[in-house]
């Protein structure tokens, strides 16, 4: 909207070029170009870019705009109209997955704005719940009636068929009612609603030589009409049909019900406005070493981040795209606080217990460095108070509108194991996840137990309802070449990868559906005025 006008006699002819950034060397690579739209400062580009999206990765994007003056593919031959930088997470995490941002890059000029919308490619996430019955099937067994079952096949591009479902066998009846079954639309017809689905009816025999009763064909589109006269199928046995003049059919199969269930994804909730609240808790125990010494894990090196800073940034910079107010509570534990030296396991890094919120990851880093200068590292290492702190907030919003992620960065040996397990088991019923990053050389056996990937965590005989803890040791990510950008990206990838599934497991157990996304953006209609 409102692009710069670079053409003398008419309006600009804009094109948009999208670049993505490599993680390691920060190099920008061209990803694709839209079409050119002639003679407008308010283009609605049609060409879409299809990209892979991973919650746990930060994908930097750059949109460059040019006024195209000739047929040349070389961008330096055209007039630059400005650019916009953002991350893929920022677009996806915006209300309705629609981001509006100013175009910058030409000093002293207003370059207009760009509106980017993202939508997840459905790639057909639907499943169908169907139930069938049959009437008057042919009798195949000498002593009793038939034992019928159905076999479903989807057709392939080359005309061959692939089996995709078998029903159970209903014993000794010519009028069976099969149990309802659930199948993904991809398995049933590859997401193509008009593709042929072939259904065969067999009489089950113990020795495996099942007798063919007959078959019929249908399609997803036909089945989706539900129970109706259209969904009663004659079962035909081609051999019998060829031999007997009077042959009508070998019975009928009727569709009793057809229910579509859409598998919802993490992005459906984000698009519907669910906010992710991010809280940080930092270990200020004496085992970290004196912050003024270079050997300390809390050493404030003016030239590079310490391990705590790297873990905070790596995780925080990705999560902040999904939190609209970008205000993060930052807590510390295991320190003696001024003025009276009392030990706290839940203090605000910004010194304000009533309002522990920091603005953005930069605000968190600033508060962390400030409190290092004012508190005295002490002990013991208690996790339960900060877990309970976040759990109190999570317990007050269980409607699916908010989800809480607590990042604990610690040097290790936990003192309140029993209380922490109790807190985690209680928290597993709440909309929250816990990420623990272990820094330094300690043994982290206790943390592996909290992670619950191998054995689900329990406390006093009660098991956690879901796995909500993800633990990683920071030393596994230190890049040998000293490239911290890469080690931070790898760390974030591993600690955040489980969050969407943990998030969905909470929503599923609670039966919470995503809110509808706000209506998509529609460009204003330009009214054409005519002179009469």
Quickly count the domains.
3
CATH architecture of the largest domain: 3-Layer(aba) Sandwich
Radius of gyration: 31 Å
What is the highest CATH level, the class of the largest domain? Alpha Beta
GO molecular function: calcium-dependent phospholipid binding; metal ion binding
Pfam families: C2, Copine
Domain C2: 1-101, 110-233
InterPro entries: C2_dom, C2_domain_sf, C2B_Copine, Copine, Copine_C, VWF_A, vWFA_dom_sf
Task: Give the gist of this structure.
With 532 residues, the chain is α+β, with helices and mostly antiparallel strands. Helix content is 21%, strand content 29%.
Characterization of this structure:
- The strands form seven sheets. Strands 15, 16, 19, 20, 22, 23 and 26 form a seven-stranded mixed beta sheet that branches. Strands 2-1-3-4 form a four-stranded antiparallel beta sheet. Strands 10-7-14-13 form a four-stranded antiparallel beta sheet.
- By secondary structure, the chain is an alpha+beta fold.
- Helix 6 crosses helix 11.
- 21% of the residues lie in helices and 29% in strands.
- Strand 8 and strand 9 form a beta hairpin.
- The mean pLDDT is 91.
- It has three domains: 104 residues, Immunoglobulin-like (Sandwich), CATH 2.60.40; 137 residues, Immunoglobulin-like, CATH 2.60.40; 236 residues, von Willebrand factor, type A domain (Rossmann fold, 3-Layer(aba) Sandwich), CATH 3.40.50.
- The chain has twelve helices and 26 strands.
- The protein starts with 13 loop residues before the first strand and ends in a 22-residue tail after the last helix.
- It is flat and about 100 Å long.
